[in-house]
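Render this sequence as a predicted structure.
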Amino acid sequence: MARPIWTGTLSFGLVTVPVGLYSATEDHSVHFRQLQRGTSDRVRNQRVNERTGEEVEFREVVKGFELAEGEYVVLEPAELEQISPGRSKSIEISGFVDLAEVDPIYFDRTYYLGPRGKEYARVYGLLHRALADTNRAGLATFVMRGKQYLAAVRVEGDVLVLQTMHYAEEVRDPHQEIDNLPETVAEPSEKELAAARQLIEMLSAEWNPADYHDSYTEQVRELVEAKLAGKEVVTAAPAPESTNVVDLMAVLERSLKQAGSEEPEPAAAPAAKSPAAKSPAAKSKGKGRAAQEPDEPSAGLDGLSKAQLYQLATERDIAGRSSMTRDQLLEALQGAGKGAKKRRLRAVS
């Protein structure tokens, strides 16, 4: 089991529980040593006096706050230690906020909070349940490694987590940072907006973090292995070109085709026929009725993509389709088709 990187107490009101702070994430990046080209000699960083070129020992280094070029207020390490807040022993929650009101930009690093003994499980569980029921986060400040942090204590699954946060003055104003940010955004046409919305819904997916990987790190490892084996190194594909505003609608239409649709759904107009309804199997069915009746379950539904199933669900006006997974879309379409077939049989009888 991992050791906590910080121990102390977590309190709200007069309720206190001893806790430990554990790292919630770890770095899987590939790390390299710096070598001189053509050798196996390590290259190390040194503290060097830029005027004399001589190396300076660590004990001879002081802190300098620059007032103007070449002018400094010099601070000794001992002076900084005297005003340091020291190691905080407590995370005292001063208030609770609705998580929906906190902009994610304020969140920084995430840590797990665990009770420091089984005897504290009841108090720990009480705060966990209360935060989960109210969907709130406790705001607190605490000191770790010589730095004071603003933090949010919230629920994540069956544990409490602490997320360090940025102070308001640390968050930059995008209007002062981005040169080409337009003052007003041009209104898209109804056709462009309808196509963009349809593309977003067709590409919607459930959040599953295991589906996403650090592909760059994987490629770096493959590069190292390839060079070890003396294989040819394959370069990455070039970045896609920026979309020309003049061709925006054409790009949206190509995106919809790539996602599995034949054409964008027009605004306030009937949807296009589904791919399933145009299949050869559908056309070969009885001549005395339509090739594929709208409410009849298709024999080829299992082989359709999520985008094609979504198109069918749109035609049949199935409620909640935009938030459904592929399996849920398939089940809803099959259920709708069976229900319609039963109604027709009852009408005939």
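Summary. Residues 273-348 form one domain. The two ends are 69 Å apart (CA to CA).
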